[in-house]
Amino acid sequence: MSPGDVFGLLSGGFWSLTYILLIWVGFKHKTYGMPLFALCANLSWEFTYSFVHPLDGWQEYVDIAWFFFDVAILATYVRYGRKHYSPHLPKWSFYPNLAVTLGLTTVLIYLGDRLDRDLADAYMAFLQNLMMSVLFVAMVLQRGSTEGQSPMIATCKMVGTACATLMVTANVQAGVVEMSEAGLSLIQFVGLACFACDVIYLALLLFFRRRESAAAQ
What is the pTM of this model? Predict the structure, then answer.
């Protein structure tokens, strides 16, 4: 088994655990744990690369599993999302807002896929992962608590993304994947930026957890 395969399996495992924990914690806390735009982008990406333009090998089956994980996370948003919905927007706009966001991300993924059928999935996956990392930080700061989130979710996301970065690097260096030096540099930079945001997210969750524990005593 090549280093790229090892990192790929680790990334898939940690990201699968991230999704499972988001579903479990979401229903447990009666809220949702993934920001809406990130959730819609994930759903669009996984639908595209599971059913429209499936990837080769085991990745296709992983993407299908992740798609249904995201459907379950979407269920937590539909059921509990009004709790954190903007008070500045009318209540009736909840579902239209969800539909417009999902439609927008679907079009973005579709257009991005048309740019480069061989590498668009990787570029878009990393860029939306960075967006997700930033939105997770924003979400925990907005809520000011660990509601719908946990340090374990943050850790699994951080490790899963780091392993994905190492997987792409190893595969390009081994000649398994053809990617320009500029493309690899972009992936590595975005992966590093994700790691930095994920560390901040984890630190914030640990801070709020300690504060919550102190308040409960």
Answer: 0.93
